[in-house]
Amino acid sequence: MSTPSPEHSPLCSLIDELLRPYTQSEFPLTKESEKDLLIALSQVLRQIKFWTHELDSDNDNDTMEKPADNGQFPVGSKLHYEEHHCLTKIIGDLMFLLAAESRYVQHLAGNIIVIISEFVVAMGSNWGELMHLLCLCLELAICNAYSSSFEPSTTNEIDLGCDSSSSITALKPRLKNANLSSLAGIVRVLRNILKHLKVESDGHLLKVYFGSIGSCLSNVPWDLLDSILIGQNGDVLRSSSVDALLYSNVAQPEPRITFKGNLIQFFCSLVEQSGFVEAAGGSQHKHSVIFEIHSVLPKLLAWCLDEQGDCTCIPQYFRHKILILMSRLSVQIHLECSILVSWLHLIHKHFQDLLLQPIIQLESDKDDCLEGSPFLVNVFDDGKQIFSSRHLQRLAVLFFLKSSLSLISLRERSDESGKEGSSELYEWLQGHLPVDIFADHNLYFERCVSFALSFLQLYMHEDDILFEVLLQLFCVPFFPERQVCKGRTFQEVNDNMLFLVSDVFNPISLFHLFLAEILYDHQVLLDYLISKDTGASSAEYLLRCLRIVCDSWKFFVEFSVGGEVTNQSSCKKRKVSGGVTDLKGKVSSASMEGDGIFLSPQNDCKRGHPYGCKHYRTERPPFDDAKDCLLSLKISLENLHRKNLFPYDPQVLLRRLTRFQGLCLDLKKI
After folding, report:
1. CA–CA distance from 604 to each of 355, 608, 611, 618 (Å)?
2. What is the rounded CA–CA span in Å between residue 617 and residue 594?
3. Which of 582, 463, 442 is nearest to 514 (CA)?
4. What are 148-195's pLDDT values in tens digits?
5. What is the pLDDT of residues 236-289, one digit of tens each?
6. CA distances from 302 to 86, 199, 350 (A)
7. How many Cβ atoms sit within 10 Å of the Cβ of residue 348?
8. Pairing mode, strands 377-379 and 385-387
9. CA angle centred on 56, ends 134 and 205, rounded to 5°
10. Which of 13, 447, 520, 549 sits at 20 to 30 Å (Cα–Cα) from 183?
């Protein structure tokens, strides 16, 4: 039997044949040569895609024989050395092109590295070595670009059977022209490889990936990037750069912006996928990556956000992605008091404007199909551009509530931390509630409910975070009996801060308001429950609400609001769900006036137009509407479950609804 050739020889031959003229250090990139290079890169990409497809579809591919011993040559053998040298040369040549002046060349070179990673996965060998080489390239690019003397990481070189010193010697000259564009390209490549692994759902590959990335991040000299990413005299980004990034399809973004954007995206993807790593038994690698990202978070904020607080000069995309990153970290990291306090300091420093933004949506706010998008721009008569920040406000307030409420939940272990959490919440509410809220005993609870309604309406437009914030509010201590601080000012009720927080975010009041906002339409609840995005969180919210409603039955039944606390309803429209034939219902509108919350049929709030509805008053106590909605939900759930049309077992929810129904029947007997 003949000795097999190194498995990457076809790659070496292909890249050497088509790209050798363009991978010489003396090669000048003219307009004509750029065109030829792009053609050659496209040919390479197509050929490797073809090979990878062949390997995926047929493991016995006649044109490319897999090596023996489960895809690995013996460490130290001649074939292993040749294979390692081949892979190093391939990555070195593509990294050289990743530093080219043409962004089109950079893009194609990066895509080729990604498809090579898929080829390596399909071959079933050398995955760890490839990841090690790519991480070395990231560290060497920083080293070469900024004349740093730090040593790249050599973690796992023994396990991988490769000599990092020889790899460094081979790769460093290929990265001598590395710059911020190169760094951005390498980060983009690493993120795209991770996206592919997510689709593959291979636990072993993810463990190796996170192991290499964790080692790399721990060795990156983040301090070295300060002077480059912040710029001179703290000048982070100017509005012209923002415009180029967000609105131009032609202009190339400033390299600093591209690198920062790619880095934030990469961190978000790493944190999001860390759960898969832990499930595959690689928790130590997961925690290493999470720890490194958390430690660099303050720097990331300083790099991406203008410390002077001039919001018009801050890319809203950065603010959006950083808030997403912080929110995901809050789920993955162990929440200690010191971490929560540091997060609160960061959000006060960089997002205070969003925390202070009014919760109530003003009549002047424009309704738009892009409402909530971090890229929506309002242009005023004087030509000044103001970014819409309702979406960012939701994210900032949600993260603020997570941090402060988590501190309150730690009160049993640290009374001081609990006080700090309640103090933070109290100060935030103080900026949004009327100063004289305690002056009138009769108006106090109405004003609490009015704020709660505005708060709920803030989140009704984004289903994916609506239930996240509602579930978070269950951390607020609940006092079934109302605590009214009659005749006092904010300064005089410091000892009763949690009473105010409890009255504002009373879970029963919020549940009543939530049902009114969806127009007491049980079909909307069904849509939430069967949605792949909100199914789990909405079911958990309903379960918790039903439990607290049944345990505090009198409060739920007697809930009402005197006076006028009207705020434009969001008129939540029902989303049409595919695959379920009997989920139909009509849309109506709800408002709060007089002695309670009234269900109001409407004439001009058509499906697809949930805003600007006229209200027609029909007086019914809130309890009656809520009861009808929940009992209708029970009937629909039972019917769907009986026909096997419900996507999961709803029996726990049905038991809670049955208990609710029993209490309603007992009420009729009185």
Report:
1. 35, 11, 10, 16
2. 10
3. 463
4. 555 666 555 434 445 567 888 888 888 888 888 899 999 999 999 998
5. 333 333 333 333 333 456 788 889 989 999 999 999 988 777 766 667 777 889
6. 41, 33, 9
7. 12
8. antiparallel
9. 40
10. 13
Bridge partners, 591 (sequence order)? 598
In this predicted structure, what is the pLDDT of residue 325? 93
Distance CA 129, CA 53 (A): 22
| 3-class SS string, 150-176 | CCCCCCCHHHHCCCHHHHHHHHHHHHC
Structure tokens at 289: 């990556």
Are 396 and 354 in contact by the 8 Å Cβ rule? The answer is yes
d(CA 658, CA 670): 19
Going by C-alpha positions, the residue among 468, 452, 572 that lies closest to residue 513 is 452
The residue written with tokens 């849509």 in the block is 527
* CA gap 352, 425 in Å, rounded: 13
Q: What is the DSSP letter of 312?
A: G
Give, in order, the Cα–Cα distances in Å from 129 to each of 121, 157, 211, 217.
Answer: 12, 8, 12, 17
Three-state DSSP state, 378 = strand
Give me 215's structure tokens. 């080692």
Estimate the crossing angle of helix 283-304 against helix 337-356, to 10 degrees. 40
Q: Which residue in this structure is represented by tokens 């991040």? A: 217
CB 242 within 8 A of CB 236: no
Angstrom distance (rounded) from CA 245 to CA 320: 15
Radius of gyration in angstroms for the set of CA atoms belonging to the chain, rounded to a whole number = 29
Three-state DSSP class for residue 99:
coil
* Token pair in block for residue 486: 């009659």
Predicted local confidence at residue 199, as pLDDT: 62
Say how many C-beta atoms besides its own lie within 10 A of residue 656's C-beta.
20
Within 13 Å and on the Cβ side, how many CA atoms surround 511?
28
* 523 vs 572, residue with greater confidence: 523
Structure tokens at 109: 């070179």
Q: Which residue has the tokens 């379920």?
A: 580
Helices (H), 473-552: 497-504, 507-517, 522-530, 535-551
User: In the numeric block, which tokens belong to residue 141?
Assistant: 């690019």
> Are 534 and 482 contacting, i.e. CB atoms less than 8 angstroms apart?
no
Tokens of 70: 């489960």
Handedness of CA 382, 385, 387, 388 (dihedral sign): positive
- Tokens 């109290």 appear where? 426
- 641: closest CA among 627, 655, 628, 629? 655
**Helices and strands (H and E) in the chain: how many:** 27, 4
Look up residue 246 and give its two tokens.
């967000």
Strand ranges inside 268-411, DSSP E: 377-379, 385-387
Question: Are residues 89 and 170 in contact, defined by beta-carbon separation less than 8 angstroms?
Answer: yes
